[in-house]
Each structure stands twice: as structure tokens, then as C-alpha cells.
Amino acid sequence: MNSNNLFKYIFAVVVVFLVAYTLYIVFESRSNNQNTNLDQTSTLSNIKTDLRLSISQLDTINPLLTNNRNVQEITKIIYDPLVTLNENYKLEYCLAEEIAKSDDLTYVVKLRKGVVWENNSNFTADDVIYTMQLISSGISPIYSDNLKDVEYIEAIDSSTLKIKLLRPVQFFEYNLTFPIMCKSFFEGEDFATSPKAPIGTGMFKIVEVSNNIIKLVPNGNYWNSNRKPMATEININLYGSIGECYSAFKNGEIDLISVKINDIENYIGNLGYNKVEYKSREYDFLSINTQNELLSDPAVRKALSLSIDKNNIVATCLGKGYTPSNFSLDMGNWLYTKDLNIPVDTEQASQILSSTGWQRTSNSWIKNVNGKTLRLEFSLTVNTNNQTRVNVAENIKNQLANLGIPVTINYLSADAYNDAISNRRYDVALMGIKLGYSPSLETFFGEGNLANYNNNEVSEIMNVVSNTTDEKTLYEKYARLYDIYLEEAPYIGLYRNTDILVYNQGLVGNITANTFNIFHNIEKWYRR
């Protein structure tokens, strides 16, 4: 063998060795990664890495255009936002690498570098501007409110943006959770009418859309190397009705469904699945007009808060699918650091009233103030269009009547009710609100709040939390706010809805859910 042939032979052997070694390392890395995600009863040989989901009554897979709850849930693993939220609604950076607040109205967003779309084109500031312009145009039914306070957005460079607001918004960063679209992918098309499924930067990508199924596979361009999924394929079965979904789940054809109905057992039975129940953003409470002569006294408000049995309300008027709630953030928010447990305690309520000059007669509480006899009574305003809240109002009236506190229910039509709330023409109002994802408490304690509540220390706290991201400071200020809330009771939390995630026992992983995302930790999910 001459020297040239010998050199070629050695070179070929080295190349083969390097290729083989590289494949070995890749395989071992994937195998080790999978092994670390397995539970103690699973091995690589007996697991299934295809997941099966469902969409009922698909309208569009486009995450900005859809009104479908299932689509909104599933597209979170396909399309990344600038920021995302974890299991405790705590903000985490996603396509944004950093967000800095330069003044009350201006935010500078530094984008993550090296991110590419699934078609290998670069992710840039133009994509974010394009998406925000689409949303601001009113095209998106679910994200339009996120940007209602944005005056303009501009690119500083290809990876830096400036956002200018019309007014200060507490925790504005939480509004940047909408999915980002690729501008170049829709070049020359009308986004609203394009039949194309958008491309993404998320963990999975769409590879097939048909009448019966949408197929996802891992996105090989996914920027987060720490979250490589166990699943090699996700098949999303499409059904014409939610009833078909229930039947498919019951028959073992899909692995997971999220539902709002309270009696899910009537549709899928009681066996063969696990259930995760989590608190929703729909929160009902009493707002007390603190400018009312009687109700301006914190002692009276605290006595009322101790006199209403929320468990009785849930059991009598609501039933399954609801849970007592004491505060707007008790749905699991990371800044809800103190359990504001306010159990019914009518004896303590009576002691509070007695210690502040109120006297119990046979059927009421009276107090003499400057020669004037006051009687502890008030009206409770409720929207007659909501029969559930009417029932709750009547339950509260009966509870307080037993304690000698007469309540007159003010039944108002929807328009009259909204007018009374807007102009604060009520004593106490039964309200319901769909809360945002952020820990903002502006609605309850900010300027012009629902209860006309003024407290200098609370105003100072609200100012501090609006201008800091320091977690220690936030924890301290919120803890103090909770203490004030317990003592002054400008609001009385009542209850909130609960949502349910049901999944087959064969689905394995750390399966948790909140109202922002039901697919936390999906990279560690597999079937057995």
C-alpha cells in the first residue's frame, strides 16, 4: 500500500470513528435525559412517547385569531411569548431576555439572541412589532386588552425594543404573554384570512393539519436546550363536539382534557383517570362603600367579614365547581404569601361591635352618636340578570338577619347595576370579576378603587410595589397589605370558580395546571 492510500485509509477510519462517537454521545445524552425524566416504575423499553390531545369545534389553529379554549391551551407549546408564567403565576423570561423600566411609561425589551423560527429564519424585533400591531388593531379576541395602554412601540435595533405607555400600568410586563408571530411568514398576505398555520419558536411545531388531526413533533430549532421533550409526537384529535371528546377520553383515545363543568363524572365516569382541580380567575366578592356613614368604620366592616359563612354559600347556592375565597390572589399567585383564612366567627364579630359602642337589641344593633341613634343596616346591590348572585345575595341577607343585621337587597337590571357600580352609588355590592394574571391590586386598592377606600399606608405600599421588582420588597409590602386588609376589610372575598384537568392514569409526569397554562413540565411527560 503506497503512502497516499495509507493516508486515505487512516483518514477514513478516523472519520468513521468520529461519526460513530458523535452518534454515541448524542444517543447517550438523549437516553440519560430521558432516564432522568422517568419515574421509578418506568424504563425506556416500556414507555410510549406519543401524546394524544384533543380540540373540540376547532375554529383556527392561529393563536391570535382563535376563540377556542382548547386551541388557546395547546398553542402555548407551539408559539412562544416574550414572557411566560410558571405554576405560581410568576413571570419568567421567554423570547425576551430582559425588560427594564426606564420611567413610569417606558420599557426597554432586550430580545433573546440566537432564536430562529422553525423555518430557520431569524427571530427579530420586527416580529414583535408586527405581532403587537396586529393585536393593537383589534384582530385578537383574547389579547386585545393586553396592549390597550400602549402608545407606541419602536425598534432600537434588531434585538431591542422600546414600548411607551399612555399611562402607568402596574406590573405591565405581565401583559406581554401573547404569542409572537413571524412577520416574514405572512409577507404579502392578509393575516386575518390566511389559511396557513403560523410557524413558531416553541417546543413543538405543526407538521400536519387535516380534517381529523393536527400532528406536532419536537421543534429541532427550539432555543431552550434545557427543555428537550420526552414526547416524539403529539397527535391532536379533532372532534365536532365536547361530547365526542368525553367519549374519546373515556375510551382511552386521548390522554388529557381540561373542563369547566362541575359534574364531569357524569360524562366520563369515576374510574381510570386522575383529576387536578385548580382555582380559576373568576372571583366573586362584596365591595363595601367605605364612604357610607356606617360602613366607614373599619370595626363594622371587620365584624361583617367575620359574620358571613362562605362555606354555607358554596354548599347552599353553588355546589361543586366553586370554592370559598378570601382574597383576589388566593388562586395561587406567588405573592399570596399569607393564608388569609377568615373563618366565620359570629361571637368575635359581636365582641368587636360591642367594644366600639354598638348594643344588641332584640333584632338589631344600635349606637348613639352625638345624640343620634344609628341602626346597623345597609342595602346590598345585585345584578338581577345573574341568578346565581341573586341567590347568594339572599343567602347573605338571611345569614346577617340571624345576627341582628337587617339587609335590604337592591335588585337592579344590568344597566342600572353597572351605572351604580361605576358611580359608587351603593352601600355594599355583590361583584364578580375576571382577574388578570399579574399580582396587581390596583382595582382594589389603587386610586378610584371599587370601595372608595382610602388609607395612607396602603397608598404608599401601592406606590412602592409599582416601582420595584425587588422580590424581598414585594414580599414585605404585600405581607403588610394583607394585615391591613384583615383589619379594615374594605372587601369581603366570597368564592371563585374552579377548573379541572383530567388525565388518564397511563400519562406519567409532573402534571400540574393553572389558568395560564395546563402544560407545565410537558417536556417530562410520556405514556406508560
- Cα shape: globular
- Ranges where pLDDT stays below 50 over 5 or more residues in a row are 22-31
Number of strands: 22
- Subunit organisation of the chains: single chain
| C-alpha termini separation | 56 Å
Q: What is the CATH superfamily classification of the largest domain? A: Dipeptide-binding Protein, Domain 3
Number of helices: 13
Q: Strand count, sense and closure of the main sheet? A: 7 strands, mixed
**Percent of residues in β-strands:** 15-25%
Number of domains: 4
Mean pLDDT: 92
Structural class per helix/strand content?
A: alpha+beta
CATH architecture of the largest domain: Roll
Level of helix content?
Answer: 25-40%
CATH top level class name of the largest domain? Alpha Beta
